[in-house]
Amino acid sequence: MATKRKPKLAVWKFASCDGCQLSLLDCEDELLAVTDAIEIANFPEASRTIIKGPYDLSLVEGSITTPHDAERIHQVRRSSKFLVTIGACATAGGIQSLRNFSDVNTYISTVYATPDYISSLQKSTPIADHVFVDFELRGCPLNKYQLVEVISAFLNSRRPNVPPYSVCVECKQRETPCIMVAKGIPCMGPVTQAGCGAICPSYNRGCYGCFGPSEMPNTPSLSIWFEHLGMNRTDLVRTFRGFNAYAEAFRKESEAHEKHY
Amino acid sequence: MPIGWTDEQDGGTYRLKERDDEALFGYQVGPHSWKKYLHPPRRRLWQAEMRDNHMVIVDDEPDYPRYAFFGVRSCELNAITIQDTVFTSGPYVDIGYRERRKQAFIVVVNCVEAGGTCFCASMNTGPQAEQGFDLALTELLDPNQHYFVVDIGSKAGAAIIKQVPHQQAQEQEHMAAQQAVAQAARQMGRTLDTRDIKMLLYNKYEHPRWDEVARRCLSCTNCTLVCPTCFCVSIEEQTDLNGQTAERWQRWDSCFTADFSYIHGGSVRSSASSRYRQWLTHKLASWIDQFGTSGCVGCGRCITWCPVGIDLTEEVRALRDGEPRIGVAIPTLDAV
Ligand code: SF4
Ligand code: SF4
Ligand code: SF4
How far apart are CA B107 and CA B67, in angstroms? Predict the structure, then answer.
């Protein structure tokens, strides 16, 4: 590896808050090792120097919300050997996909003085709806250790250790007694993919579902239990309609309860 | 010590409550079992480094901790014995487990009250610990006195007792201890009819109940991770960014994850019903063929800590009777 050309990394931004790509700069301790192993070729948040593609690894943040971006993502795909999407926006459409549940044109005409200048798609959609994605790294925001793990796995040609099981596994690993059982607090953990390290339950808050649906989410059963714990229909809709509102399992669940308003 | 505290347990609920006495062990089994010490959630198996372009296995002589487990219940002691068989009998011994286990000093507390999800009496694993401990305490508390009757199970236990102020127990104190434990046996919150249980499960391989429970089961893995006998693990390879060091880690896994049974082409158990069936059938039936005992000691943790209150004693009853569940109110979404 040492004598070979360093692989080139590019970081791309679509509709997003920048939090996920900044996690890469947040890596601090690991950042030097990352730049040792990989050439940061195109990362406007970190450097003005832009080295031309093609790139060995592209990290794509953000969802597709405009006709222009729907075009641009194909260029990114063409110039990337491996394309990894990072964060809830890129993997599920993000919080901005809440607009998918209503008519975007009403917002546009209410918010903007001259709506004619706005060119927006009806829906906010994940990158994988538009181009082939090699790996999806979930989270709002992503977990920086998982990001380093994915880069490390890519550099060493191995499978990343990013398990798709539920947050409950992480609760048990860190020995947090289940707050849904012990305190009756509704928790999205059983249907949410692990990755955060079960932070919220360890602070007595139910999981918010930041990492999107787990590998086989049984959302209807969890909803029945939430009702049993006293949650009403409106809150059921809200609970499934967070950062990963448009991820299929969560979308279907919130829509099922919305019908019953 | 949680002096004067107890817990109330039922399917999917656990609440701490204050007692009106000063009992030291007035609670039942808690959220975690001793498994986490003897069979830790994560551990490094070995590591390697690149030296002069060669891979070298790094000597990693672990320092096995010496544990004293204080307050082990009879069901849990039986669970440890079951894991002893799993990890140390047969040709492939788990050395880490063996070394941690060899040095463990075990103080049992015989239960004098049973919890809402306990059924050790059905499984023949309690509430009285019969063997395998260093010391076994029975706590006795009445308005006039608060004392422990101690059974000595080993030389190490005897050596400890020598250093503790004590007196020879009288017949009457022995009797009191036995009665208190017998009282717990009568209070079991759950029961499991184990008659011919192995063939019952083998014969109910196809049964509509598996689909019914699958509608409730979240495949969240909590039941297996809290279970003191479940032992399944996965192996992860880790590397650093520049490929100079590599580590192999073992971590708890569960038959409830799809990845766990993933082989080329897909997951062997892709439906929730097949996963629940695998778990219950292994626990109560094929475990007997594999290791000579049941895989369940009746501690009730999987019932309490299942986020949606799935109860294996109910499931077995339904499979046995072929009848709808009884006794437990299952919440449903009305108008759906
Ligand atoms: S607190 Fe939430 S994530 Fe943790 S075990 Fe309970 S349900 Fe699962
Ligand atoms: S199957 Fe349930 S009751 Fe039986 S030992 Fe495991 S956790 Fe305890
Ligand atoms: S039985 Fe309960 S604890 Fe076990 S996987 Fe299903 S929902 Fe989770």
Answer: 11
